Amino acid sequence: MSGRDAAGAHLLIAMPAQWNGTLVLHAHGGPTLGAPVFSRNVEDLKRWSVIVKAGYAFAGSSFRQGGVAVRAAAEDTERLRRIFVRQVAKPKFTILHGQSWGASVAAVGASMFTDDGTGKRPYDAVLLTSGVLAGGSRVYDFRLDLRVIYQSLCGNHPKSDEPQYPLAIGLPAGAKLTSAELAGRVNECLALNKPVAERTPEQQRKVQTIVDVVKIPANTITSHLTWATFHFQEISQRAGGRSPFGNVGAQYAGSPDDRALNAAVARYAADPQARAAFSADTDPNGRIPVPVLTVHGVGDTTAFVENQDSFRRTMEAAGTAGHLVQTFTADAAHSYLNEPVYPTLLAALSAWAQGGPKPTPAQIAQQCASFEPAFGKGCRFLPDFKPQPLSTRITPRP
Asked: pLDDT at residue 116 above 90?
């Protein structure tokens, strides 16, 4: 089943031949910019086809708008659930699944919607995979760090003969820069499109400075700089041209000359109103009344695994830590882990939320092997892994 809802979001619902009665509501990652398109739904279903293969119904929304709007996306996801109940079937059990940025959508939505209007909970359980869960007001700070450090080293974003603007806004409204042009500027300065041996010593010094200070691999510099440009532009435009991001007081370390680096980078103070509004929209509060299961690859360089330490602290502060089980895998992938991981997690979460004992990471790791005959090899759980605080990965602000 496909179509558009009353708010304009594209919808896609898939039912397995033998439905187990459970609906998995999928909140996609990104976020994407621009108007929503149905191809996004098709891409999501193709990537997450294992959900249907395992016997679960799948329902995904493109969301009614692009950009970093978490609560609006959570509303779109809940609207989809209601459409499924009215037009498809009444599920015995509903799992809210969020992937990447969509994990923040699901975590926020699970706190927003705790009554379906009949006195029942709309979601019976929550699955958060590779999640951006530390809150937008904190987890994107490293991308501003990348912008200011890159500019101090390269000076071409913007170029000296172009209009200057605060880097914290990403790009000014109306700017014509494209992602391809930005990649070209990065390669002019850092030669990331060349093997290390073909870079000049100066280019490699700049690359290594970024790698060591921002704590991201060289092959992700362009992608993170792209997000720090175009997503930051969208975020600032929502805030009337102001930015929720700042780096006043941040002390960068790891370069050949930290004193010189800290003196050279531009400094910006976050706009208090923009920051408060962005935090209210993007930061989970942890008040989730149902079981929550997470998984994260420990080598994820898009959404750092340290997000999980922040989310655990959020749940503890809300008094809901008893609802949380966190699992980790020996993977560097972000968009998708291995095939048997997801049926394992969905089965463990379903059993727990339907009255079974709270599972341990070790039990989930052990159970994964039973799913490999049907879904292939790929069980790489690390039951003893504990993530470090986010402050060990992202330069803290005072």
From this structure: no
